[in-house]
Amino acid sequence: MNADNAHPNTVTRHDQHGRWPQAASIDDFRRNLATVQARIEAACARVGRDSRDVRLLPVSKTKPEASLRLAYAAGCRMLGENRPQEAHRKWEALGDLTDLRWSVIGHLQTNKAKLVAQCAAEFQALDSLRVAEALERRLQTEGRALDVFVQVNTSGEASKYGLAPGDVAAFLRALSAFPALRVRGLMTLAMLSADSARVRQCFVRLRELRERLRNEAPAGITLDELSMGMSGDYEIAIEEGATVVRVGQAIFGARSTPDSAYWPVAHDAPI
Ligand SMILES: *Cc1c(COP(=O)(O)O)cnc(C)c1O
């Protein structure tokens, strides 16, 4: 499972952004979920992994409530949302679906920590102690705990969210002071590029960082999870060790909002 023996030719599908058909029925969602699951299994088989070690997190951002209800009917029990307000609004609107859980996967400001503490079971974009403090305080008030992933900037793009890889060890040590935050692992967004070698390099970097940190992680912090890969690149991420893939458009259909509304896009991106 390294860049030499794995599959350098596995292509990204970033050049097909905008071409995912809209899922408009339960059957559409069932079919899309089955297609993605089959690709997850094929990617696992290529590198000798067990596909039960990869969790598919469907990402529903920008999609309307009706569409989320279809996804639920097709079997989805956890949904990923990038923005805290949107996650909270949908959590309230879909409150009748009592076993539906929410993962917030996008940047959080301290003044929105309360929303995440109320509605989310998981937060994947932790990258500052200020946010950790704000979440801890709100979670204590709510009497809740939260699974968290530390977001790492593996692409080296200055404007991206996430900690520099060299800052993660100290950050993890500091996180042991926050009992309501259960650290599960690391999360990254690869460079959005049609060049699969550059995308793969981001995933390799996250995996290698996790291997280094595992040995020195503070007691009580396990780094079992690697959240990496989205519609355009999840198969590459799985070849490099992803345990969570965050897939939106390949399940729900294309978004009209460009990705640049959520994070800065690399200059060589073809879209
Ligand atoms: C939107 C989003 C995804 C999913 O992207 P798709 O192209 O829809 O698969 C993954 N991760 C994050 C952080 C996102 O905001």
Automatic annotation (TrEMBL):
Stored InterPro entries: Ala_racemase_N, PLP-binding_barrel, PyrdxlP_homeostasis
Protein's UniProt keywords contain Thylakoid: no
Gene Ontology molecular function: any one: pyridoxal phosphate binding
Domain Alanine racemase N-terminal: 33-255
Superkingdom of origin organism: Bacteria
Function: Pyridoxal 5'-phosphate (PLP)-binding protein, which is involved in PLP homeostasis.
HAMAP family tied to this protein: PLP_homeostasis
Protein name: Pyridoxal phosphate homeostasis protein
Organism annotation: Paraburkholderia acidisoli
